[in-house]
Amino acid sequence: QVQLVESGGDWVQSGGSLRLSCAVSGFSLRWYTVGWFRQAPGKEREGVGCISSADGSIYYEDSVKGRFTISRDRAKNTVFLQMNSLKVEDTAVYYCNLRETVPGGDEYWGRGTQVTVSS
Prior knowledge:
This protein is an all-beta fold. It has strands spanning 3-7, 11-13, 18-25, 32-39, 46-52, 58-60, 68-73, 78-83, 92-100, 107-109, 113-118. Strand 5 (46-52) and strand 6 (58-60) form a beta hairpin.
């Protein structure tokens, strides 16, 4: 059974930093992406960025480019989201997503971790 567990969410002041972790277990997929999404109160869930298993390529949404960094520890099956220069508008529940990148592939979500940025 695939499980994704996020951790690292916290309260931080504007301009601060946090590192989120997504521990993935129970899978044996070869071709997949692990992505970070977020959902602010009253808003739709939006993508933040993702990393590909194929070549390690990383994609970021424009809103976080230059501030957020995705990395992975393959030995620990963990993906990280380093968030710097946090803004109040980054406040959201952050979710980890694993998507199998083959036709009809499965998709899995974690339960999320709360990030609150205050001014």
